[in-house]
Automatic annotation (TrEMBL):
UniProt KW Phosphoprotein keyword: yes
Family annotation (HAMAP family): Malonate_deCO2ase_dsu
O-(phosphoribosyl dephospho-coenzyme A)serine: modified positions: 25
Predominant cellular place of this UniProt entry's protein: cytoplasm
Cell compartment(s), UniProt: Cytoplasm
Its job: Subunit of malonate decarboxylase, it is an acyl carrier protein to which acetyl and malonyl thioester residues are bound via a 2'-(5''-phosphoribosyl)-3'-dephospho-CoA prosthetic group and turn over during the catalytic mechanism.
Processing after translation: Covalently binds the prosthetic group of malonate decarboxylase.
Family: Belongs to the MdcC family.
One CC-aspect GO term: cytoplasm
Gene it is expressed from: mdcC
Keyword Nucleotidyltransferase tagged: no
Protein name: Malonate decarboxylase acyl carrier protein
Length: 99
């Protein structure tokens, strides 16, 4: 198991909490809690060692295609593909935008 913490600039405010995925499903769970500020703090626990570069690339990509909300993102990854990871992350951001 590897633990990774990333901090990226946030470009929008939001409120509330959101959850996507289920740890027991075998791929991943993503929890988001909105906070005031200008950053998104991402805490990742993954079963895939040496995956920091993959996560950094994913969040760099997300920054270029959408605005990221300020807050805390907690990810429990159990070998999900980058496509599933992106879907789960976008799901929590969409859900919290309706809060």
């Amino acid at each position: 198991m590897e633990k990774i913490t990333l901090t990226v600039p946030a470009s929008r405010a939001s409120s509330g909490k959101a959850l996507a995925g289920v740890v027991g499903s075998g791929d991943m769970e993503v929890l988001f809690t909105a906070e005031s500020g200008q950053t998104l703090t991402i805490e990742i626990t993954t079963s895939v060692d040496n995956s920091r570069g993959r996560w950094e690339a994913l969040f760099n990509r997300l920054q270029t295609v959408s605005s990221l909300p300020a807050g805390r993102l907690t990810i429990h990854d159990f070998g999900a593909t980058p496509g599933v990871a992106r879907i789960r992350i976008e799901q929590v951001f969409e859900e919290v935008s309706y809060a």
